[in-house]
Amino acid sequence: MRKFVLVFIAVIFTVxxxxxxxxxxxxxxxxxxxxxxxxxxxxxQTFNLNIGAFFRYNFNARVAARAQFLxxxxxxxxxxxxxxxxxxxxxQDVSVMVEINYLKYILSERKTPFTPYIxxxxxxxxxxxxxxxxxxxxxxxxxxLKEGVEESVIAASxxxxxxxxxxxGERLGIGxxxxxxxxxxxxxxxxxxxxxxETINSAGVAETIKYTDFSHNNDWPGYLGMFxxxxxxxxxxxxxxxxxxxx
Length: 247
What we know:
Strand 8 and strand 9 (206-209) form a beta hairpin. The relative contact order is 0.19. The chain has an eight-stranded antiparallel beta barrel. Strands 8-9 form a two-stranded antiparallel ribbon. It is mainly beta. The protein is 13% helix and 53% strand. It is built from three helices and ten strands. It has helices at residues 2-18, 133-139, 239-246, and strands at 22-35, 49-58, 63-80, 83-101, 114-131, 149-167, 172-183, 197-200, 206-209, 220-233.
C-alpha cells in the first residue's frame, strides 16, 4: 500500500511537471435537491438558492484537483410512513475533489473548446439539526429517543457528480453540473433513523434496533447549478508562447 501511494505521488508530480501550469477560479450558483427518508417529494420544488466558489488546479488536459465551498438552503415537503413531514434549513459544504475530463480540455485553448467531465472526492457539511419527539412519536410510536435535541452537525460526506464545461474567451469559461453528497450521517432532514425502535432481547436486556449507521443512511443532498471560471497562468514565462502556439 505504501509503495502504491509513493508511485501515485511520483506520477502526479511527473505529469504536472510536464503539463502547462494553470489553474482556474470559479463562482457557482444554483439550487439544491434532496433524497432521503421523506418520500413523495416533488422532483421540482421551490428554488433554493445556493452560491459558492472553487479553485481548480489543472495537472494536465485530463485531470484536475478542485477545492470548493457552497452555501445555501435545502427544503423538502412529503411523507414519512404516510405522515406529512417537511424541513427547511441552511447548510454549508466544503469539498476537495478530483475532476476527470472525457475530452482533452484546457480553458481558452481552441483545440479543446468543451468537454463533459466527472468528479468525486471527500468533504464535510455543516447544518443545524432539530429533533422533535412529538413528531417522531407520530411517525414511529416506538422511537427510542424521547427527548428533544437541537444542535449543529458537522457530517463527513462523499461528493460526486458530472457536468459539461466550455471556453467562452481567452480566460473565461462556463459550465453546468449536478453534484450529490453521500452523507455519513442521518440527521440532515431532522429524521435520525426514524424507523429504529427499542426492544427486549432474549437475555432480557433492552436493545435498540437501528436501520442506519455511519456508512448506511438515507440522506443524499444535491446541487444543480452553473459556474463561471477565470483562468490563472501559474507559469507566466511559458504561457504566452503556449497560447500563441495553440491559438
